[in-house]
Design a protein that fits this description.
Elements lengths: L1 H15 L19 H22 L6 H4 L3 E9 L2 E4 L2 H14 L2 E4 L6 E3 L3 E12 L2 E14 L2 E12 L1
Parallel strand pairs: 1-7
Antiparallel strand pairs: 1-2, 3-5, 4-5, 5-6, 6-7
């Protein structure tokens, strides 16, 4: 929980201030933001959302093999404090349910608020969803743990906007 609060604070501060070097305006040190591993994790998150948008258009792309490019096989995927998946098979099922229930779903890119370190990422994004004649937006904040180039833990909070 402490890490979740810290990363949330860092995400909020990073959105308001362009901070260099690795200390934000609150005086908190953000380690390893410019390392090669942090850069690789940035690409991982950005590539994930490009793939998600493609998979929303073509659900056949939602395979276990494609998910394993981004997530560990024992992923802990939590949404609004509810465990949605604790392995890649359940994550695939969860993603397929989301995509098939929506007529159209699209993540607004680029991810403007993205803070990445060697082993974690904090970011927010907007998800536009169409179900029949109903159109709405979800604003989502994510804290992800990353190990060896794969997301091992995902905690997100989603706020529904009509």
């Amino acid at each position: 929980m402490k890490n979740f609060l810290l990363l949330s604070l860092l995400l909020c501060c990073s959105a308001s201030f362009a901070v260099t070097p690795t200390t934000n305006m609150a005086g908190l040190i953000i380690n390893n933001q410019t390392s090669q591993m942090a850069e690789a994790n940035t690409h991982l998150i950005k590539n994930l959302y490009q793939w998600i948008n493609a998979a929303c258009e073509n659900p056949k792309l939602l395979t276990s093999a494609s998910l394993q490019k981004f997530f560990s096989t024992d992923i802990q995927y939590t949404v609004n404090n509810q465990l949605a998946a604790n392995n890649i098979r359940q994550l695939k099922k969860s993603f397929k349910n989301m995509v098939t229930q929506a007529k159209r779903m699209h993540v607004v890119l680029p991810l403007d608020r993205l803070v990445v370190t060697n082993d974690s990422a904090a970011f927010s994004y907007r998800l536009n969803i169409t179900k029949g004649k109903l159109k709405y937006t979800d604003d989502v904040i994510v804290i992800a743990k990353i190990k060896k180039g794969k997301i091992t833990s995902w905690q997100s909070v989603s706020a529904h906007q009509s």
